[in-house]
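Every protein is a chain of amino acids, and every chain bends into a shape of its own. Below is the pair of lines this work produces for a single protein:
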Amino acid sequence: MISFQELLTSFDIAMIFGIVAIGIYVTFRTINFADLTCDGSFVTGAAVSAVLIKSGVDPYIATIASLVSGGLAGLLTGILNVKFKIADLLAGIIVAFMLYSVNLRIMNDAPSMVIIDSVTVFTNSNVSITIISLVLLFALAVICLLFSSFGLKLRSVGHNKQFSSIAGINIQLMTIAGVVISNSLVALGGGLLSQYQGFCDNPRELVHW
């Protein structure tokens, strides 16, 4: 029978992946963009977070850095799609495969990085409450964003690009913005997971859950 601690751990990890799910929702449902960049940006966020924390950087700055790293990955995917006319699915695959090498370099070719003894965002706090607070914070932020003027343009592009173009909406800009936001959240989830579990495995094997 599963113990209470195992149940709590499963809940915590599920909540972290809730942030990842929100990010994926933005691309696949909001802007109708079949993006596979998340396969690499998730690990990028984990690797960036682990390396910075291991180096003694403030864990909150490391967490923000993981979010930014995912945004940069999404930016590259968006540019490949809208500027170089590469199909959304293929653009995501290209960047995801590229990130495997990038992630390996971020970790200095190390097979894994342990940060169990380092200070993280979960140190000296209730882990479950911290995770729930973060998930609710970013979920609320995304909801407010989608119901703002910018969010309406974003959703319009996903529903009908032709109508959006007629209405004067910059489809290319909205597409790039959507992919950036999505991968930022995905990488954030990776960064939080690496801090939660206390280590990050070789990027080739993704993060060990």
Remarks:
- The first strand starts at residue 112 and ends at 114.
- The chain has eight helices and two strands.
- The chain has a mean pLDDT of 93.
- Residues 4-204 form one domain.
